[in-house]
Task: structure prediction
Amino acid sequence: MIRTVHVPLGDRAYDVLIGRDLLGQAGDRIAPLLRRPRVFVVTERRVAGLHLDRLREGLGPIDASALLLEPGEATKGWAGLTQTVEWLLDQRCERGDVVVALGGGVIGDLAGFAAAILRRGVRFVQVPTSLLAQVDSSVGGKTGINTRQGKNLVGAFHQPVLVLADVDVLDTLSPRDFRAGYGEVVKYGLLGDLEFFAWLEGHADRLAFDPDLRAEAVRHSVQMKADIVARDETEQGDRALLNLGHTFCHALEAATGYSDRLLHGEGVAIGCALAFDLSARLDLCAQEAPSRVRAHLQSMDMMRDLRDISGDLPGAETLLTLMGQDKKVIDGRLRFVLARGLGEAFVTDKVPADAVLETLRASA
Result:
């Protein structure tokens, strides 16, 4: 069964298709979007080895040129962007063509940004191959790259024209990568849907082995994000709630050099735990809320604290400084997504620095 989530954005509306063997159906799904039978696939070497042949087989008579980038967060920078844009130009990708992003969040963000700036805007299709990308980064139109100053500080809002979330490809993820993606799944329950969080408490341990449960978790997450994006496409209000855990996460990613020491979803899980710890410290929610969050993350064998990250980290003061480069800073004031309880997140810039420092120190 193919589940469909519609993202209603007027003339930029699109569907997210969620189900099994969508790579095998890629030609039927993408062909109606094409002016000529050709697409330009941007992917990375690990993903290409696993899924590129299946995608090409599914595309049938549609020609698919492919750029294979190096895996890892380091690719999502100026050099990777330049390489991608120049390859697309060398391939004579026209404004009426379609770029296909085949990969996880790094590839989706990078290829989407390249499509956004190429010839002032080329259409693109997201084919996310990680759980994190299927539930989060492939939906909503945020594209961009990292710089030495911080994560995702250069980018554009550029909506895809279609998302194909094939849950079968998740079988190839390592347990660590799957758990990292789950960090974004659990975020949706914590920010605005206690019933979904409770469902995850009862079913999450089977998601890695049950395609139907997995598809339902992806669908629910995508539906929640689509609803928020439809209300606030460019993050002027409600969409900021999707950043639950990310203020801490982005600082930790910068502190670890965007390396494999900390995957993005692992940082989100730690960030969610810290956001609830900080909320309780500020008497915004009862202590039972962070305790329940931590218990669930522990049951999924996920990171919860700074001390779970391998190697040395800078001190709390340095981490707070790194948070100051976050996109959510407005007029020099750092905004946090905090919570009044499970499923009751809100955005605030009224957070004392000493409370943040105490939260970080307690986690180290």
Remarks:
- The domain at 175-363 is CATH 1.20.1090.10 (Dehydroquinate synthase-like, alpha domain).
